[in-house]
């Protein structure tokens, strides 16, 4: 399996939306795709039609010792969803402590799913540094860093690079990092200027295109689905498809360690 860990150093960059739509793009290409939510906000499921009143997820399953297969949902676009789940605050703390005590917890849990070499797991994480991000990077085949074309995102890039260098880069299974600039408004000159700086700074690590700002993204979420499903002809949907092509070209070029194969 290939594990794509989606990260961001700061919040509000549209990371979860990007993770959901890229998962839909990859599933449309006859890949088995599992999206896994490691963010306590438990929002990734909302893009895939998982019932709002559902409380099941990996947090509860881990604490009770239940198999993750018992909390898998069949989402829209053929994507399998592993939500974070809804838990009380005490349980959230216990789960987070469990994750923090064993950075390889996620890697071991994913291997228990016995996925095929061609299967893809897209892991959504909270912004910044946390036990969840560390665990996700310890399981990653590829890290996808989502940024905006603004000064705050630019300044925060070194923070996430340090985390990736510490928890992902030393592992033989890790194949590299890529960057995607999200929510681009081409009418703003500052956006164009920062985008130019990002391209100079990140070079080949940066997705050559961008994800344009699109009101359809919010409309799709209101309908409990992805933009790919809601408005496949929109500009942002075309951007997501192009990003998916770039992403899988990079990921499929990474050799799979025998330890990652079911």
Low-confidence stretches: 257-262
User: What percent of residues are in strands?
Assistant: 5-15%
The largest sheet has its strands arranged as 3-4-2-5-1-6-7
Largest sheet: 7 strands, mixed
Helix content: 40-55%
Q: Give me the secondary-structure category.
A: alpha/beta
What sequence of helices (H) and strands (E) makes up the elements? EHEHEEHHEHEHEHHHH
Look at the structure and give the mean pLDDT. Answer: 94
DSSP helical segment count:
10
- Radius of gyration over alpha carbons? 17 Å
Q: State the end-to-end distance.
A: 8 Å
Number of strands: 7
Shape category: globular
Give structural notes.
The protein is of the alpha/beta class. Helices cover 42% and strands 12% of the residues. It is built from ten helices and seven strands. A seven-stranded mixed beta sheet has the order 3-4-2-5-1-6-7, sandwiched between helices. A hairpin with a 5-residue loop joins strand 3 (73-74) and strand 4. Helix 1 (15-27) packs across helix 10, helix 2 (58-64) packs across helix 3 and helix 3 (89-101) packs across helix 5 (131-139). It starts with a strand and ends in a 10-residue tail after the last helix. Mean pLDDT is 94; it is low at 257-262.
